[in-house]
Write a structure and sequence with these properties.
The complex is a heterodimer of chains A (178) and B (127). By secondary structure, chain A is an alpha+beta fold. Chain A has 3 helices and 6 strands; from the N terminus they run ββααββββα. Chain A has a 6-stranded antiparallel sheet with strand order 1-2-4-5-6-3. In chain A, a hairpin with an 8-residue loop joins strand 5 and strand 6. Chain B has 2 domains: 1-60 and 112-127, Orthogonal Bundle (Non-ribosomal Peptide Synthetase Peptidyl Carrier Protein, Chain A); 64-111, no CATH class. By secondary structure, chain B is mainly alpha-helical. Classes of the chains: A alpha+beta (178), B mainly alpha (127).
């Protein structure tokens, strides 16, 4: 289950909304490099979940929602990040929650808005608090080569975007997938 | 809604979608050449125009579809006379007069200017 940046799907309303959580763990190696201690400069280690991987987690949340809408028949790829804002760091021991909502979808692709919330065990009374948002565009790859008059392209017949990993994730979250 | 009102809303859509400055969005600016639009941006623009103006845009209604793939419409890398006629019929909001002089298929995306979008919206709103 490499390159999975969500741990569990907690809610799925087909063609509308998907909610997923990601537990930030100190066992994740990238946190050791982001950012390591620098004794020479007197800096202590400061492990922080990279914002780029939060974007990836949102893209996976939205991508599963868009892929699920057509039973994973389309090759759905993240085509564009329109806007991304995040207001605070996610540190080990916190839980991130991504809520993706389809704004618009057709044969060509979909636009998805995703909100990012954080549960901080240091402040459990706050619950999941909003810390950011992102606007994403997904393309149905085989249907989206004509918008600018471009020649079509052939892609592999198998669905290289939605492999078994995403389906396993949905199944292990309690959702039936063919 | 006046043409100026439509232009202002179209400009907002393009600033948002293409991350360009307001000043760059002039009526004659080409979406691809001047504002840096790529293929996925066309879909984004369609979605955002729908939101901004409250109407639905059918696939192929604003930007062409299936022209490049049809051998009747493209020969030796150029849009044929038949292809041009089909494009004009499908896309009455587009000014093809410059493109007609050298109808290379690779240049077809350049015909879409800010004015093209304003024309399209204006027609959709029944102006």
């Amino acid at each position: 289950m490499r390159w999975m940046w969500i741990d569990r799907v907690t809610e799925l309303q087909p063609r509308h909304k998907l909610v997923a959580v990601k537990n930030v763990s100190l066992a994740e190696e990238h946190l050791h490099d982001h950012f390591p201690a620098e004794p020479a400069r007197g800096l202590l280690a400061s492990p922080v979940m990279p914002a780029s991987l939060i974007v990836e987690g949102c893209a996976q949340t939205g991508g599963i929602l868009v892929g699920h809408a057509e039973e994973f028949k389309h090759k759905v790829i993240l085509a564009k990040v329109n806007k991304f804002q995040i207001d605070r760091d996610a540190t080990p021991g916190c839980t991130l929650r991504y809520t993706a909502i389809i704004e618009r979808m057709d044969d060509m692709g979909a636009s998805v808005n995703c909100t990012i919330e954080l549960f901080d065990f240091a402040k459990p009374e706050a619950g999941f608090a909003a810390i950011g948002s992102i606007a994403l565009m997904f393309s149905h790859l085989d249907h989206n080569m004509g918008a600018a008059g471009q020649a079509g392209q052939d892609f592999p017949a198998h669905n290289f975007v939605f492999g078994d990993a995403f389906k396993t994730l949905l199944r292990s979250s309690g959702y039936a997938v063919q | 809604m006046t043409r100026d009102d439509i232009f202002a809303k179209v400009r907002e859509v393009l600033v948002d979608s293409l991350a360009v400055d307001e000043e760059e969005v002039t009526s004659t600016a080409s979406l691809v050449k001047d504002l840096g639009a790529e293929s996925i941006d066309f879909l984004d623009i369609v979605f955002k125009l729908e939101q901004a103006f409250g109407f639905k845009i059918q696939q192929g209604e604003l930007f062409p579809e299936g022209v490049a793939q049809d051998p009747k419409f493209v020969k030796d890398g150029k849009v044929t006379a038949e292809g041009l006629t089909a494009l004009k019929a499908k896309l009455p909001h587009v000014d093809f007069s410059t493109f007609e002089q050298n109808p290379a298929i690779t240049k077809v995306a350049e015909v879409f200017t800010v004015d093209t979008l304003v024309n399209f919206v204006s027609k959709k709103l029944g102006n």
